């Protein structure tokens, strides 16, 4: 019997499982604290979406829904569930949500060291930019 996948908004009780997903996906950052995820999900409940099977959170994706910008980041699927379209389901839900908010395009950032992931995104119809912009950040 095929396990039912539930795609739903993040709840604070999901934190430890999301952290495992991010670590297995090499996507965990110092800023992924329980407080920050709680604040993000309180401000916009659909800004973190999870995939659940039998009560276990096995995938997640974060969204940015700003008036001028839509972004998707921290897509991560537990290793044992990869290749089962979980990432595709999460991305489709994220894209549908952002489209429902009036966005016509979405941006993702992928570290160039993840060639396999870049190829996966290309299969999902994401394209490289042809500009000279470089992502930069500063700790506050």
CATH class: Alpha Beta
SSE order, one letter for each helix or strand: EHHEEEHEH
Cα separation of the termini: 49 Å
Shape: globular
In the sheet with the most strands, the strands line up as: 1-2-3-4-5
Mean pLDDT: 91
Alpha-beta classification: alpha+beta
CATH superfamily: Gcn5-related N-acetyltransferase (GNAT)
CATH topology name, in short, is Aminopeptidase
Helix residue percentage: 25-40%
Beta-strand content bin: 15-25%
Q: What is the tally of helical segments?
A: 4
Number of strands: 5
List low-pLDDT spans: none
For the record, the count of structural domains works out to 1
CATH architecture field: 3-Layer(aba) Sandwich
- Computed over alpha carbons, the radius of gyration is 15 Å
Would you give an account of this structure?
The protein has a single domain (5-123), classed as Aminopeptidase, CATH 3.40.630.30. 31% of the residues lie in helices and 22% in strands. It has helices at residues 15-24, 34-43, 86-100, 115-123; strands at residues 5-9, 48-53, 56-65, 70-77, 107-108. Strands 1-2-3-4-5 form a five-stranded mixed beta sheet, with helices on both faces. The longest helix has 15 residues, at 86-100. The radius of gyration is 15 Å and the shape is globular. The model has no long low-confidence stretch (mean pLDDT 91).
């Amino acid at each position: 019997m095929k396990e039912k996948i539930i795609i739903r908004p993040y709840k604070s009780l999901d934190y430890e499982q999301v952290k495992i997903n991010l670590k297995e996906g090499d996507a965990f950052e110092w800023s992924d604290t329980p407080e920050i995820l709680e604040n993000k999900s309180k401000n916009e409940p659909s800004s973190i979406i999870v995939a659940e099977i039998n009560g276990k959170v096995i995938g997640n994706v974060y969204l940015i829904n700003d008036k001028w910008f839509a972004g998707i980041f921290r897509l991560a699927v537990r290793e044992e569930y990869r290749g089962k379209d979980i990432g595709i389901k999460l991305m489709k839900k994220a894209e549908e949500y952002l489209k429902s908010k009036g966005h016509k395009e979405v941006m993702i950032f992928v570290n160039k060291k993840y060639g396999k992931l870049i190829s996966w995104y290309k299969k999902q119809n994401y394209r490289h930019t042809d500009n000279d912009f470089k992502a930069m950040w500063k700790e506050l």
